[in-house]
Design brief:
It is built from nine helices and ten strands. By secondary structure, the protein is α+β, with helices and mostly antiparallel strands. It has a single domain, classed as Chloramphenicol Acetyltransferase (2-Layer Sandwich), CATH 3.30.559. The strands form two sheets. Strands 3-10-9-8-6-7 form a six-stranded mixed beta sheet, covered by helices on one side. A hairpin with a 6-residue loop joins strand 9 and strand 10. The protein is globular.
């Protein structure tokens, strides 16, 4: 019982100094470290252009690529998918990302936050899921988390604090109800902020003490063939070298997505590529049977 939580399993093989880190640094933000990743888009932007010509109904952006590539990295490099709760180190079940979307690009427009599981999804599935989720959220439909918060905020301040303190105590013991954890976007592998969609440069973001998120990624705008991603990481989950090598793998996937997906995969039907991803035939170098280049076909 004490080796399991609703969202993960206790890490029992970590080095003693790693196990002691939550004692020395109880909070995520005192254990936060920051990384920059500059991505060369020389091959990424043509890939997205060809994909969007072939799939005008399911247009993709750098944001979709980041979600797809980051999910693959966390599957291959599982130490990044760990978290600290109750002073102990846990291995998360599944790869979960949270992200936010504005209903409208107005100052006072509501911000909708989504949480979804991404491990095992192909690139076309990532695009379809994110586009569908954002469309639903922008429709103004209230989520379960929003309903719970609305009810909580109707209570007197003292009662709110007591209930929240009880929840935090249960969570530290690994006894928080699964229903609360599954629907809470801050119980996540990584929170991703897409500032590029707002034409903004990336910022450095804090981690949240509530929840279990050990990673925060900010995606900046593309500029002169490059884009910068900024990461905040809880250093209690793994060391800097492991994180660096993981980010290099992420850079490799983002800078040449066609190679990662399998450029020889079948056609723009979402057919499965060599590595199991629905690759489609977006490469402009592919030729039709007539011998002419068919963009995105």
């Amino acid at each position: 019982m004490w080796n399991r939580r609703p969202d993960g399993a206790l890490v029992t093989d970590a080095a003693p100094y790693r196990q002691a880190m939550p004692l020395i640094m109880p909070g995520r933000n005192e254990a936060a470290v920051y990384f920059d990743l500059e991505v060369d888009l020389a091959r990424t932007e043509p890939f997205l252009d060809d994909w969007n010509r072939a799939h005008p109904e399911a247009r993709a952006t750098l944001f979709h690529l980041v979600l797809w590539a980051a999910a693959r990295v966390l599957q291959r490099r599982p130490e990044l998918n760990r978290f600290v709760a109750g002073g102990r180190l846990w291995q998360r079940d599944g790869v979960w990302f949270s992200f936010a979307a504005k209903e409208r690009l107005d100052d006072g427009a509501p911000l909708k936050t989504l949480k979804r599981r991404f491990d095992g999804l192909s690139f076309p599935e990532v695009v379809a899921r994110v586009r569908g989720d954002v469309r639903v959220e922008r429709s103004g439909q209230e989520s379960a988390t929003e309903r719970e918060l609305r009810l909580l905020m109707k209570l007197p301040v003292l009662l709110r604090r007591l209930l929240y303190g009880l929840f935090r105590w249960l969570d530290a013991l690994g006894l928080a109800p699964r229903g609360f954890i599954d629907g809470d976007p801050l119980y996540t592998s990584m929170f991703v902020a897409n500032l590029g969609s707002l034409k903004m440069a990336p910022c450095y973001h804090h981690l949240y003490e509530h929840g279990t998120g050990s990673l925060f990624c900010v995606v900046g705008r593309a500029h002169e063939g490059k884009a910068t991603l900024r990461f905040t990481m809880d250093e209690r989950v793994t060391d800097g070298l492991y994180a660096h090598r993981s980010l290099e793998l992420l850079r490799e996937l983002l800078e040449d997505p066609a190679a990662a997906l399998g450029q020889t995969a079948m056609a723009a039907t979402g057919a499965v590529g060599a590595d199991g991803d629905g690759a489609g035939s977006w490469a402009s170098s592919q030729r039709s049977t007539s011998g002419k280049t068919t963009p995105g076909a």
